[in-house]
């Protein structure tokens, strides 16, 4: 179960970073599901749990452009259940 969580977490983070940096060239059969480069201020995603899980932070990409992202620091603790929900992809 932890392996699935780590895979999903790193897939999301790398997907967001690739979309933000624009360094990857996508084939014609791939689409970008999320590109947060145009967001000014907070992303406003719904985090679960509300406290003690995800934290929204600003980081700099390789071009020194500030980008917003989420991080979770308690991944090594047992029984993790940390989720993010964005309104860019409908339920």
Automatic annotation (TrEMBL):
Keyword Transferase: yes
Domain Eph LBD: 30-91
Protein source organism: Pongo abelii (Sumatran orangutan)
SMART domains: EPH_lbd
Protein name: receptor protein-tyrosine kinase
InterPro entries the UniProt entry points to: Ephrin_rcpt_lig-bd_dom (IPR001090), Ephrin_rcpt_TKs (IPR050449), Galactose-bd-like_sf (IPR008979)
Membrane topology: Single-pass type I membrane protein
E.C. number(s) listed in UniProt: 2.7.10.1
Primary subcellular site in the record, as a coarse category: membrane
A Pfam family that the UniProt record links to this protein: Ephrin_lbd
Localization of this protein: Cell membrane
GO CC entries: dendrite; plasma membrane
Leading EC class: transferase
Signal peptide: 1-19
Keyword terms, alphabetized: ATP-binding, Cell membrane, Kinase, Membrane, Nucleotide-binding, Phosphoprotein, Receptor, Signal, Transferase
Single annotated GO MF: transmembrane-ephrin receptor activity
GO biological process: axon guidance
């Amino acid at each position: 179960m932890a392996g699935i969580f780590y895979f999903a977490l790193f897939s999301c983070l790398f997907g967001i970073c690739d979309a933000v940096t624009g360094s990857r060239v996508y084939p014609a059969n791939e689409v970008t599901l999320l590109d947060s480069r145009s967001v000014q201020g907070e992303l406003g995603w719904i985090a679960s749990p509300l406290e003690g899980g995800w934290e929204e932070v600003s980081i700099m990409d390789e071009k020194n452009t500030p980008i917003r992202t989420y991080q979770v620091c308690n991944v090594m603790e047992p029984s993790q259940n940390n989720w993010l929900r964005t309104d860019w992809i409908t339920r």
